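Example record

Each entry pairs one chain with its bound ligand, cytidine-5'-monophosphate.
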Amino acid sequence: MKPGERIILALDVSGYDEAIDIVRKFREEVDIFKIGPELFTSVGPGIVEEINSIGKKVFLDLKFHDIPNTVCKCAVAAAKLGVFMFNVHTLGGLEMMKQAARTLTEFCLEKNIERPMLIGVTILTSIDQAALRDELGINIRMSTHVKYLAELARRAGLDGVVASPEDAEIIRPRFGKDFLIITPGIRPSWTAADDQKRILAPRDALRRGADYLVIGRAVFSQPDPVRALKRIKEEIAGA
Ligand code: C5P
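Structure tokens for the complex follow.
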């Protein structure tokens, strides 16, 4: 994959026109754009079709976390919309993930449409070891817990997981190259960490086994975002 194919640019804005402007500005630089809850809740599903019509792919990052029946219906809705990738929360449990994966495959076969990739969120990159223990009451090493959740996702038939760049190093050797790892929390040395606790530079994240890098503020907080993205692409070339 070329550097531009490995980057998922986060459309963390609330305006339709603002988001489409970003897609147009970056269309030559990246292939996949991420729609999160803020944009989706603000403007609705039409934006996915618009981005597809520009010839770009969408990662629908709504992190579905609900009972199996509800998540299965969300999976069908995401497939109908034509997203390239979407995610569910692994903490929603094995049965939910299994049923979602099965429903998605059956629906796409029946309709003869491309099956979106189904990804599991492990532990958010804004949660660190102390928060895991003191706030969530999970008294296990972060790496052990993430590995456990990734195993659950694989058993359920998911295509991969969202995990921190550090966790990629633990997941990759155990799960082989066909299991996708998508890593947010990407910060080149020349940017601030913001609310992300478990961060790594783009090149290091790829070296540790990430397939795709989710990038938001590292680009948009810079005075020249397109230049910042190009700089990241240069940094990861050959990683
Ligand atoms: O601005 P920054 O690069 O930190 O943005 C990261 C993006 O990745 C945000 O859109 C955030 O919602 C998303 N994300 C994350 N951690 C996860 C899953 C998604 O930061 N575990």
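Residues 10, 12, 36, 61, 121, 124-125, 162, 184, 186, 194, 196, 214-218 surround cytidine-5'-monophosphate (CB under 6 Å).
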